[in-house]
């Protein structure tokens, strides 16, 4: 029940005040869906309240019962791992669900806007477009940092949300902490820091600053460092008042029983995360060391993520096609602002990394002489 009571009633005034004018009036007014599992928690000997199939499931595993709509077990473990409370945690069907719900929670279609900082993750803009929400752009500098006057420009903004991605996709770098701090002080909307790649970065997570900033939302995911992209589990961390609103508007059973079971097993095995991360970081260092030696590589951008953005001194789309012809698929980012000539290379296994370097060396050897660097 706790997640579905009106968020304003039990929240400290300061936290509610920080959200003044940011929640859509129809969301304030609406009654959330009250599921069978809201109205009766736990198990009784006879459960005939949810139109489930008491006889069992078709297929090898029993999934006949609806899952916990509040995902209490996962939130308890995650709260311990992150030094937060379960009330700071929203779980989504991937971070993409959290992104969509944040737009729908705050932006009136046809009226409100969000701010994005290109080049960046494309889903912010897709979620805005789907909801008929205007997109304002605050482009990153050529070295992919926030412009020096970002905070000053955002003081005037009436946008409801600002999406910052740190480490940023597709560029790989962390955004400077001081720049984000000034924006948190100046912008009146929610500041969403997408930390999908934070586990690969050598910097504290913004989750450690939630108590200071009532309009800060931190997104993380099980898709990258945890290696569970197929599971679809994303997390939004924020002040309890804001999390309560996300819970109010989410589909009641948005995290499947299969996902909840797997996530619990993964959390119990959390020590494996650092091993996996250490291996990936060694792979990233290996690529970052050897890529610059290739004649077709112009620049390898510094990365705090599990990928490298690489600028080529030859037609990058041709390099992309020639990699594909050799059975290697990377991401072509040449059309992204500030990313002319760039491909995004995900760090793979040792064998995959070596194969990628060999393929790029071969492709370089076949380039017309006048186009190559030497
Ligand atoms: C991969 C990625 C995500 C993860 O999305 P999921 O829906 O959780 O898989 C979120 N943000 C960014 C910037 C990403 O690159």
From TrEMBL:
<dbReference type="GO" id="GO:0004400">
    <property type="term" value="F:histidinol-phosphate transaminase activity"/>
</dbReference>
<dbReference type="InterPro" id="IPR015421">
    <property type="entry name" value="PyrdxlP-dep_Trfase_major"/>
</dbReference>
<keyword id="KW-0028">Amino-acid biosynthesis</keyword>
<comment type="subunit">
    <text>Homodimer.</text>
</comment>
<dbReference type="Pfam" id="PF00155">
    <property type="entry name" value="Aminotran_1_2"/>
</dbReference>
<dbReference type="InterPro" id="IPR001917">
    <property type="entry name" value="Aminotrans_II_pyridoxalP_BS"/>
</dbReference>
<comment type="similarity">
    <text>Belongs to the class-II pyridoxal-phosphate-dependent aminotransferase family. Histidinol-phosphate aminotransferase subfamily.</text>
</comment>
<dbReference type="InterPro" id="IPR005861">
    <property type="entry name" value="HisP_aminotrans"/>
</dbReference>
<keyword id="KW-0663">Pyridoxal phosphate</keyword>
<keyword id="KW-0368">Histidine biosynthesis</keyword>
<feature type="domain" description="Aminotransferase class I/classII large">
    <location>
        <begin position="62"/>
        <end position="360"/>
    </location>
</feature>
<comment type="pathway">
    <text>Amino-acid biosynthesis; L-histidine biosynthesis; L-histidine from 5-phospho-alpha-D-ribose 1-diphosphate: step 7/9.</text>
</comment>
<protein>
    <recommendedName>
        <fullName>Histidinol-phosphate aminotransferase</fullName>
        <ecNumber>2.6.1.9</ecNumber>
    </recommendedName>
</protein>
<dbReference type="GO" id="GO:0000105">
    <property type="term" value="P:L-histidine biosynthetic process"/>
</dbReference>
<keyword id="KW-0808">Transferase</keyword>
<comment type="pathway">
    <text>Lipid metabolism.</text>
</comment>
<keyword id="KW-0032">Aminotransferase</keyword>
<dbReference type="InterPro" id="IPR004839">
    <property type="entry name" value="Aminotransferase_I/II_large"/>
</dbReference>
<dbReference type="InterPro" id="IPR015422">
    <property type="entry name" value="PyrdxlP-dep_Trfase_small"/>
</dbReference>
<feature type="modified residue" description="N6-(pyridoxal phosphate)lysine">
    <location>
        <position position="224"/>
    </location>
</feature>
<dbReference type="GO" id="GO:0030170">
    <property type="term" value="F:pyridoxal phosphate binding"/>
</dbReference>
<dbReference type="InterPro" id="IPR015424">
    <property type="entry name" value="PyrdxlP-dep_Trfase"/>
</dbReference>
């Amino acid at each position: 029940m706790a997640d579905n009571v009106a968020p304003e009633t039990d929240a400290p005034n300061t936290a509610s005040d920080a959200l003044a004018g940011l929640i859509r009036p129809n969301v304030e007014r609406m009654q959330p869906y009250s599921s069978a599992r809201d109205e009766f928690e736990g198990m009784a000997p006879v459960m005939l309240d949810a139109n489930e199939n008491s006889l069992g499931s078709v297929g090898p595993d029993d999934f006949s019962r609806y899952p916990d709509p509040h995902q209490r077990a996962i939130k308890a473990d995650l709260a311990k791992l992150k030094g937060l409370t379960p009330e700071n945690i929203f779980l989504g069907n991937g971070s993409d669900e959290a992104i969509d719900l944040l737009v729908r929670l705050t932006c009136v279609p046809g009226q409100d806007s969000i701010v994005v900082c290109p080049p960046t993750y494309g889903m912010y803009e897709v979620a805005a477009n789907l909801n008929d929400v205007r997109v304002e752009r605050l482009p990153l500098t050529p070295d992919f940092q926030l412009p020096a006057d970002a905070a000053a420009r955002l003081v005037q903004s009436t946008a409801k949300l600002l999406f910052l991605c740190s480490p940023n996709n597709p560029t790989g770098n962390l955004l400077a902490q001081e720049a984000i701090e000034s924006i948190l002080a100046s912008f009146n909307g929610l500041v969403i820091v997408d930390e999908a790649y934070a586990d690969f970065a050598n910097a504290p997570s913004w989750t450690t600053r939630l108590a200071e900033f009532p309009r800060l939302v931190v997104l993380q995911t099980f898709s990258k460092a945890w290696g569970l992209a197929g599971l679809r589990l994303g997390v939004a961390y924020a002040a309890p008042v804001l999390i309560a609103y996300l819970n109010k508007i989410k589909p009641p059973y948005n995290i499947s029983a299969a996902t909840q079971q797997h996530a619990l097993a993964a959390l119990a095995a959390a020590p494996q995360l650092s091993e996996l991360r250490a291996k990936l970081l060694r792979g990233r260092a290996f690529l970052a060391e050897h890529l610059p030696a290739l004649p077709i590589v112009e620049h390898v951008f510094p990365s705090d993520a599990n990928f490298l953005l690489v600028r080529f001194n030859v037609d990058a789309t041709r390099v992309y096609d020639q990699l594909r012809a050799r059975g290697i698929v990377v991401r072509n980012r040449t059309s992204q602002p500030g990313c002319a000539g760039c491909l995004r290379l995900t760090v793979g296994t040792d064998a995959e990394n070596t194969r990628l370097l060999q393929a790029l060396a071969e492709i370089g050897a076949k380039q017309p002489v006048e186009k190559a660097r030497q």
